[in-house]
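Dear colleagues,

For the upcoming journal club I promised to circulate an example of a predicted protein-ligand complex. I picked one with guanosine-5'-triphosphate because it came up in last month's discussion. The inputs are reproduced below in full, followed by the predicted structure.
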Amino acid sequence: MRQSTYETEAGIPDRAILVSLVTPAIKRGSADPEHSLQELVSLAETAGVEVLTAITQNRETPDTRWFIGKGKVEELRAVADELGATTAIFDQELSGAQVRNLEQELDLKIIDRTQLILDIFAQRAKTREGIIQVELAQLSYLLPRLSGHGKNLSRLGGGIGTRGPGESKLEMDRRHIRDRIADLKRQLAEVVQHRNLHRERRRKSGALQVALVGYTNAGKSTLLRELTDADVYVENQLFATLDPTSRALELPSGKEVVLTDTVGFIQNLPHDLIAAFRATLEEVNEADLVLHVVDSSSPMRDEQMAVVDQILGELGASGTPQIILYNKMDLCEGEQAQLLPHSGEDTLLMSAFNPEDLERLRQAIQNKLTGDTRTFALPADRGDLIALAYRIGEVVAQELDGGTMRLKIELNKHDYEVHGYKLQAYTQQHQSEAH
Ligand SMILES: Nc1nc2c(ncn2[C@@H]2O[C@H](COP(=O)(O)OP(=O)(O)OP(=O)(O)O)[C@@H](O)[C@H]2O)c(=O)[nH]1
Ligand SMILES: [Mg+2]
């Protein structure tokens, strides 16, 4: 197993000092450095680390050798000695050389944000697909950090910061890593093919796909559980879910759709991870409807929503119909609540534990999926076409006008694209013949 332990050999949790560098460039970036540091605390705790304190440095640019300034390195040493720290966790990504320099200088384990996230993913991965994807991301992260130091793999030794690939691979040089990456990619391709077949079968069954997406800890798995009685893992921690779980969801009309829970997003989600998890995240791309779950009570709510929008864009899912679920309204008070939009066609203010809200959500999903109304004008003697119209949607009006049967149908985009175009073609043909 590639599970990182985040504890010393004696089984005591790692004791960490968090370090954040604030430069003008970082300040201009999308994430507020202070919020980011708060989030790093949650990430560290999720990984099982005991957080002792945090140190911040304001600086024009990162130091090439130490990332933080040399004076700050000394301060870090003093604080670490005083508090008995074993580890320093940096909120930004470090180069391989910076990690080595700091480790030698301070005799602490040095972890950066990316590595911490990769470690959490490694701790969580359960399915074959998840495990392959995490290892792929870990090795992709590691590879450029070995450049020029092909033999120096001692950091893969043990304890926190070993992040995965594990002791058995201690002697692996870059060539081996590349071979392993190629091998993992092959294995992943197989799993993906299997998943595609599965998805194809679901598609053929005609069920519409609805994906729960959102920032980590927003309440996606809770919603899946509350809506479908699914037995899924819900935890007040980051990245509780790694692998997508799908369940049938019954809408008020009685029609069933497939609801899928997905991995949570986070700001600065490592690119290697997005790349590695692309197959899993394809679920989002294939969805007919995206439910964007938001933790309304989070002080980082707007930033979190922006991160989710950005990642959806990267996945090519920006254009998918979306309902924004402002979840955890029960925890949302005062100003925080006032800044929210009103519930509407595309937004719902709700709590995952409120049955009435869940009912409104079912209705909203139904409206969004089947909200399309089309009118077809078909030759009245084509019983087959008229039967098709009845099959693919809800006929809300029917009118016989000479040789023309006019049907007003409520149907969803997917059914329209798959079947409705045929009726549309007959409609156009029939109308031009009638003129
Ligand atoms: N008060 C309150 N808590 C909620 C609500 N929805 C979810 N939670 C809690 O929020 C925490 C996270 O919920 P999850 O469903 O695991 O969140 P998730 O989005 O699946 O998170 P990841 O899988 O980590 O991405 C849990 O402790 C839930 O009980 C809500 O509407 N109100
Ligand atoms: Mg979850």
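Two points we might discuss: The mean pLDDT is 84. Residues 342 and 377 are 39 Å apart (CA to CA).

See you all on Thursday,
B. R.
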